[in-house]
Structure formats: C-alpha cells, structure tokens
Amino acid sequence: PEAGLLHEMFFKMVSSGVTHIAMEVSSHALSLERVRGCDFKVAVYTNFSRDHLDFHRDLESYAEAKSLLFKRELPESRAEDKVAVYNYDDPVCARIPIYWPGRTVSFGLDSKADVHPISKVEQALSGFRADIMACGRRLEIGSSLPGRHNLQNALAAVATAVALDLPLQAMAEGIENCRQVPGRMQRIELRGSAPSIFVDYAHTDQALYNVLTALRPMVRTRLWVVFGCGGDRDKGKRPLMGRRAAEVADLVVVTSDNPRSEEPLKIINEIVPGLTEQGFRRVESSELSDCGSGCFTVLPDREKAIDSAVRLMLPSDVLLIAGKGHENYQIVGDQRHDFDDCEQVRKAWERRIQEEGV
Known about the structure:
Strand order of the largest sheet: 8-9-14-10-11-13-12
Number of helices: 11
Order of helices and strands: HHEHEHEEEEEHHEEHEHEHEEHEEEH
Radius of gyration: 22 Å
Structural class: alpha/beta
Distance between the termini: 48 Å
Shape: globular
Largest sheet: 7 strands, mixed
C-alpha cells in the first residue's frame, strides 16, 4: 500500500493490541518509497532471481531496488538492536554485510552460515526433517512443506527468530505447525490410486527450477510439468523458463498462463526455443505418454493441457502445474474468467476414474 495507508493500517493494528508485524516488502514498494518511515527491527533477504523486469530496467536495477531495505530503510529505522538476516548461499544476498554495518544473522545450506543443517536433510513429498545449528545452538526442525526452497525458508525463519531472541522451542513448534500454503507446492488430494500432482505459483525461470529440483529426487518414474508465461510481462524469461523445464523435467506441456492482450501462441512460441535448445522434441499430446523423456507438446487451452497430463501420467509419475498457483482466474484479453488449477486437476482425475476405473 501507499505510505499513508500503510501507516494508517499500523495505527489500527497497534490500537487493537498487535505487537509484531511480519511484512513482505517488494522491490516496487522500495522504489516507490511506500515503506518510508517504517521502523524495521529485522530485515530479511531470502533470495534474488530474475523477476519484475516489466518495472525495473534490468537485473542490476532490480537488485539495487531490493538492497534499499538494507541501505536506506534499516539504517533510518528508529528501532533498537536492528538486525539484517540474509541468505548466505545466494551471491546477491551475500552482499548485505557490505550495505549494512550492524548486526547480521546469515542462513543457508553452507556450513559457514550462522543457521545451517548439520546432517543430511530427510526430504520426501510429505515434507522434510533436519538437524540444524542456530548460532551455536542445536535444533531439530520438521515441516510438511517439501523441497529445498522450503527448507531455506525455514532456515530464514529460524534466523529471524534468533535475531528476535525467541526461544528455540518456539522456533521448532512454529515451523512444525506451519500448514500447506494454497498454491505453493500444494499437493492435490485425490481419491483412488492417484499419482502425485502439485500446483505451484512459480512464474519465473528460477522459481520453476527450484520447485522442479525439489520434486526431482522424489520421482520414481517421470516428472511432468505444465506451464506457460504471462502476457504483457517480461518476455526475456520465456525461453529461460523453457530451458529450466527441460533441464529438470522429463515431459513438458506448454500452455497459456494469463495471456492478457497477447496471442497465446505467440507467447508459447517464445518459450519453445528454450526446450529445443536442450534437445527436447515436439510431439502430439497423444504421443507424450509413450515418450520416456525429452519430449514436449503444446496445448494453448490450459484446461485441456491439465486434462491431458492428468490422463496420461502413470501412478508413479509426478506432475507439477506451475505459474498460477492460488489464482482462481485466468485473464484472456481484457476478460477475467473463473479458473482454478486445483479444481481443474480434480475434474480431470474424476473423468479419468469414470472412464478407466483407476
């Protein structure tokens, strides 16, 4: 929100007895000075990847905008004992000690981070468990949220809790009780002998890569992905997303996301080169199941794309439907239509049960 509205919200929260606020601060908010006057006690830098280039000139401008939280907002904050928390594994985040001369707490998978795993992390489709070191103190954490990126998010939460001097047990319980977030690595519950199907909001090349690599070690046969790219947004990421999909997945269905004012096939045709550069070959959707790996098909109608993947996958396959996550709509032209990836999966699976009795 604009600065005036934001501080009005804070006033109402304080008046209602709220003592702590956890708030996402976007690069847009920093560039447009929407958080000026906010007295941050802890500022957290989780990761940096290509995004929002429809707003920022280039990646360096984007990185510069995000760094304002540590170069400008934290130094100007009137809070006491201010702390910067950052991802040690990310080279852009690791610049934070250069920007911020005060206290820092780092997190990451690297043992040099202040908060890091100290033994092999147990990863499954149902979540993870890990023994970690938190600034010299040992702690066991577990979560029903699977994937390396969720582990890193949990480490970020522990690092933030350390910065706020919260009890270790409170950290562990908070992470353990955190339930699945709609549209974020969300596993769809289906009846019968259903395969594992996930919906995720990943709409950048790095986010898509993160989710696919999180699923990859837990796939017994083939990893499928259905995705597209939004219209009227950063066009440069389109072939990059195709490339990332081909680097990790076995089978790919390229479809529409929110095409907005662009022609869906035009967007798709800008994704395809990233797949073909990695050696993927195009086949008809009916042939996809017979292709062990290294194949993709194009189905611009997102409903048909989801239906095709759900119908063709084996019980031991894993499917990721990426790009829209929690959204319950699709924007085509200037029209906003009802559309929910999770609901489309359920409908497709029910049709398959009725036809095949699986």
